[in-house]
Design a protein that fits this description.
This protein is of the alpha/beta class. The protein has 14 helices and 15 strands. It is 35% helix and 20% strand. Helix 7 links the parallel strand 9 and strand 10.
Length: 440
């Protein structure tokens, strides 16, 4: 149910006599679970709403007639409750984190509401039949689903949840119910790759376009896997074989349905796919096409700037800038940085590839760099190479909307401890990258 925290003036809710503290318990006779119900029915023109009076006068059902899409004028008390994960996945990243970090980092969410509203991946193992019907009834589409495999026995093994084998039935009902699904498979070498991956991809493609794509991503292995299920890291040969398999599947399907993570191209030392391969980049937050999109945006921005200036751009004061990134990104940024140095007079930009000692050097993505490792790398660079004018960081290294790293260090602390006052944060992709190189 939803507890009303505010009734707006001159609103439909005000005319209906609703007050702060009242609780909405049902819409059209269906139990009200959260704000998704409210948002759905606000799009409707006619429905009934059952309200529990805050004074204890009982429940009243009122008929609502309004324009479609018109808001009722209500705000609600926020609930911190989310549907949590009931799995013990053999590859779970949360199980591989050290103690003493922010409490929120240890929360394993598996909430289809967050999948719909935020793009979080869910396994559906905690989903009841009523929950499945609610998704279809409220048209919560698209959803992002961690499939991993459609082999019921293997999925039970990998997720270590006896309910995990229901996935085929769930995918079938959701797709036939009009819900678009973006799926992912975290590939465990020797388990759900190879022939198992081919079988999963073919079964999912049978639902295309309702199942829009299948992302293949590597397991994130940290140094804290002691005592956990043995999983080997991927190397160049493995990545080459996987990319060949995916190319064969997509050729069979006639569309780029199976989409590999950028990490596999970097490990295989193969060129990245072009932007058109990824369509609307629906799985970019999963590391699918992120590098391609970044390089394409930065290249376009740089070309536009040079054309605008009718030659090389200039920075007002010559500066030495360090571009901080993970080991993987450092392998693909070199050409772009060289081009920027040639096009922007007075700019001396260098890549600083930071090894991830916090989680372990098998973790090579920029988004999992911590403040402590960045600090150590900056101090070492300064001791060996001398002073730095500016540092450019990716916003992926910090909490969204906040300047706090995974380790808890703040950006202001990094500036103070590193002795580098001018540390810029790029949260605007390739376009932002080029703009920040130019800014004083």
């Amino acid at each position: 149910m939803l507890k009303i925290s505010k009734v707006k003036r001159n609103s439909i809710a005000k005319d209906l006599g609703l007050e702060k503290g009242d609780e909405i318990v049902a819409f059209d006779g269906y139990p009200c679970e959260d704000e998704l119900d409210y948002l759905y029915y606000c799009e409707s023109g006619e429905f009934t709403m059952t309200v529990r009076d805050h004074r204890g006068a009982g429940e009243t059902t009122v008929a609502v007639e309004k324009d479609e899409g018109e808001d009722l004028g209500l705000e609600f008390e926020k609930s911190n409750e989310i549907r949590t994960c009931h799995n013990r996945c053999v590859f779970c990243f949360v199980d591989q984190m050290p103690k003493g970090m922010r409490e929120s980092l240890y929360v394993k969410d598996d909430d289809y509401g967050m999948s719909f509203s935020c793009g979080n991946f869910v396994t559906l193992t905690n989903l009841s039949d009523d929950g499945l019907e609610r998704i279809i009834r409220l048209k919560l589409s698209p959803l992002y689903v961690s499939v991993h495999t459609l082999n019921p026995e293997l999925r039970v093994k990998l997720l270590r949840n006896r309910h995990a084998g229901k996935i085929v039935e769930q995918i079938d009902r959701l797709a036939k119910g009009g819900i678009t699904l973006h799926c992912q498979a975290v590939l465990v070498p020797g388990e759900n790759d190879g022939e198992e991956l081919k079988a999963t991809a073919r079964k999912l493609f049978a639902y295309y376009p309702m199942v829009a794509d299948l992302a293949c991503v590597p397991t994130g292995l940290t140094k804290y896997r002691v005592g956990l299920y043995p999983i080997s890291d991927v190397d160049k040969a493995y990545s080459e074989t996987l990319l060949d398999t995916i190319d064969e599947l997509n050729a069979e399907f006639g569309v780029n349905f199976v989409q590999p993570a950028d990490e596999y191209f970097i490990k295989a030392e193969r060129p990245l796919k072009p932007t058109e391969f990824y369509g609307d980049f629906e799985q970019i937050e999963n590391g699918i096409g992120m590098t391609t999109k970044f390089l394409d945006e930065a290249g376009r921005a740089l070309t536009a700037l040079v054309a605008e200036k009718q030659g090389a751009c200039k920075v007002k004061a010559p500066k030495k800038m360090l571009i901080v990134c993970g080991v993987s990104a450092s392998k693909v940024l070199g050409e772009l940085v060289d081009r920027c140095n040639r096009a922007i007079d007075g700019l001396q930009a260098e890549i600083l590839a930071v090894k991830n000692r916090f989680f372990g050097e098998t973790v090579t993505c920029t988004g999992l760099l911590t403040g402590v490792d960045i600090l150590d790398a900056l101090l070492q660079y300064k001791s060996e190479q001398g002073a730095v004018d500016e540092v450019l960081l990716s916003g992926d290294t910090m909490k969204e909307f906040e300047e706090v790293f995974l380790c808890g260090m703040t950006l202001s602390e990094l500036k103070k401890k590193s002795g580098v006052e001018h540390i810029k944060v790029n949260r605007d992709g390739g376009y932002g990258f080029v703009q920040l190189l130019l800014e004083d």
